[in-house]
Amino acid sequence: MAKVVAIEAVDLGVRFRRGRRGRRSIKDLFGGSRRRTPPGDFWALRDVSFTVQAGEAIGVVGRNGQGKSTLLKLVAGVLLPDTGRVDVHGGVAPLIEITGGFVGDLTVRENVRLTSGLHGMPRAEVARRFDDIIGFAELEEFVDTPYKHLSSGMKVRLAFAVVSQLEEPILLVDEVLAVGDKAFREKCYRRIDELLAEGRTLFFVSHNERDLRRFCTRGLYLDKGRLVLDAPINEVLDRYNADYTSG
Length: 247
Known about the structure:
Layout: E1 5-18, H1 26-29, E2 40-53, E3 57-61, H2 68-76, E4 83-88, E5 92-95, H3 108-118, H4 123-137, H5 152-163, E6 170-173, H6 182-197, E7 201-205, H7 209-215, E8 218-223, E9 226-232, H8 233-246
Parallel strand pairs: 3-7, 3-8, 5-6, 6-7
Antiparallel strand pairs: 1-2, 1-4, 8-9
């Protein structure tokens, strides 16, 4: 059977601006530090190329600030590259930011309907899956509570519950699951196992080595915005650990 490409990145590059220009800030005016980062551009990602086959589970590895979350946002389509391209074949179910797509003044009920609809779930399907979403999130007693009054753990539960009910073939998961309590994380991980068994594609950013080894067969190691290793996950983690120890 021919392999199906889910994600293809070619010479991806993203450039951001460092420091600020123009007038000094209020903090500066009232005795803040006069030391300022000089304005200029830096590359969050540069010359990154890889291909992900449908059904693969990919772990993205690297220290903080090396471009991992930026890469996920490119795949999700919420960020455009400055150079190169990323082609995503199929819809994505993104779990990148806890509050992404949710509105503070709307209730949990209203937010489930809104965010599910924004992700393309038909209204009838939202109604059919509503109880499953609320039950998975363990928010039955908070259905009519404004979202802004939920704890960070509750927000994570709600976000994962919505995203995990989407039928999209590609699941994007950032570090947000680290906020949830242990029992709920295990519940989420069992759900990820189910989705992988269905043939979904997983793009997973985490600093948790155990989770990366559990879910992923392959890893992408980013350092200073560049892809330094694309290999089986155990090899990638061994290299990352060796670099971290020596560095």
